[in-house]
Amino acid sequence: MVDKLVYSPFAEPGLLQLLRRRGIDSLVLTGLEADVCVLAAVWRGRSRLPVVIATMRCAASSDQAYDALLALYHLRFSQQIEVADADTILACWL
């Protein structure tokens, strides 16, 4: 377990060490605040591991903020960040 004391869990050095020890090579991110904590995790995590954001499993301060973030991920960061719905992500594991 790694306690997250700030918005991004990657601010805690123990997280990346834990992921590496367990052989984790990518992340699926979801969360309550897509425009705060999830965004912070994406920003710091994308340079460390491949990141997939599970759409419809995140919320934001408004529908407009949520839509704007998804547009940003698709239009600007499509080479660094994957965006997929939860059913697609789960199907990849089965």
Describe the structure.
With 94 residues, this protein is α/β, with parallel strands linked by helices. The chain has one domain (9-93): Isochorismatase-like (Rossmann fold, 3-Layer(aba) Sandwich), CATH 3.40.50. Helix content is 41%, strand content 19%. A three-stranded parallel sheet has the order 1-2-3. Helix 2 links the parallel strand 1 (27-31) and strand 2 (51-58). The longest helix is centred in the C-terminal third of the chain and has 13 residues, at 63-75. The two termini are 26 Å apart. The mean pLDDT is 86.
Question: What brief labels describe this structure?
Answer:
about 90 residues, alpha/beta, Rossmann fold, 4 helices
Question: Briefly, what is this?
Answer:
This protein is an alpha/beta fold and 94 residues long.
Anisotropy-based shape: globular
The separation of the N and C termini measures: 26 Å
The number of strands is 3
Q: Provide the gyration radius in Å.
A: 13 Å
Describe the secondary-structure layout.
Blueprint: H1 13-21, E1 27-31, H2 37-45, E2 51-58, H3 63-75, E3 81-85, H4 86-93
Parallel strand pairs: 1-2, 2-3
